Amino acid sequence: MVSPSTQEAFSSRSNTEQAGDVVISVRGLTKVFKDFWGRPKAKAVNNVDFEVKRGEVFGLLGPNGSGKSTTIKMLLGLLYPTKGHIEVFGHSPRHVATKSRIGYLPEESYLYKYLDSKETLDFFGNLFNLNTPERRKRADQLIEMVGLNNARSRQVGEFSKGMQRRIGLAQALINDPDLVILDEPTAGLDPIGCREIKDLIVALAKRGKTIILSSHLLSDVEDVCDRVVIYYGGRIQAQGTLQDLLVEPDVTRITSPVLKRETMDKVLNTIRSEIKDGSVTIDNPTQNLESYFLGVVEKARASEESTSGALAGKVADYLKGTAEEQTSSRDKVLDRLTQIEGKHDAKLHVEAPIEKVDHGKLDQLTHDSNEAFHSPEVENAAKSQADLDAANDKLSSLLDSTSDKDSDASDEKKD
Fold this sequence. Notes:
Layout: H1 4-16, E1 22-34, E2 40-53, E3 57-61, H2 68-75, E4 83-88, H3 96-99, E5 102-105, H4 117-127, H5 132-145, H6 161-172, E6 179-183, H7 191-206, E7 210-214, H8 218-224, E8 227-232, E9 235-241, H9 242-246, H10 261-274, H11 289-302, H12 335-338, H13 359-373, H14 376-414
Parallel strand pairs: 3-7, 3-8, 5-6, 6-7
Antiparallel strand pairs: 1-2, 1-4, 8-9
Helix pairs in contact: 4-5
């Protein structure tokens, strides 16, 4: 448990921290897993360096087995590094007071399935030595924030995967952490839930929270992260801001309202006069499916259509800052997600097209399956099976009867 004096000390320290202060410092981090005999088995993380600053949303990217989860476990103090140095808030990640400032959502939500939402949050709040009134207040606010008001009395074991992610996120925020580590936070969520979680991440960052996000969904990382590192083979292959990593220096994009044909021709002629090969294309921008889907849902919400599903509420009061602007329900997504990329003249290797699902065949398969289920062959087989079961029952009763007689005879001989 964290003592009140320690909590007070960290509270005063948080007030002195400024945006841009280094929250996490990693230098030469290496983790080698060994077998039973102490021989090196796998080098999960190999000489990694990075820093995370206060108020940043920092993304960890990489394929499975690249070292992301191992890095997170070392940042949490759950694993010792083989070599290298880690500092979290200027201390070892195993420092108890440091742990009290961290919220963690693991890839799988390990929760007690017989507790309901409020009991779950009350349990985790008690681990952080929060008093009862504060635990209840925060639990109510978090349940509303993550959209589980309609399911607050249900046991967690009855929750779907998406609902478990929501309550898992709530438990990661029960202690009002300064550092939030999220491992696949949108896994199992519908598009509405994904958007709500991403909005929440941005809102927390604007309130001075530091977020580390590990995800396989590149669109999620691109929407919310300020900087990213890309792992492969236990090493960092690239790191930097999204703008620096995604910029295409050889391509220029010009965005304007719809122009008259004459004006467009003048612009094209001017541009083509500067380009030797004349590779200039014009496309109308289009929104992506996520934007369209969310727009339809927002209209339905505006018309006060009721739903019994999850519906996120406002950010919990105790997580809010004092003089900060409220975040909108949807922040601007990078332009490259909402516009068609310019067509390139370079020759591309065209793969064989993927066959579309033949719904006619699917219907036929279903129809044939139903007919087969009611066919004479199936009915005869079922009748034969019933006769066989009856014969087995009769044989079992005869064996039982014989066994009883033998037992009686044995008893008579003993007498």
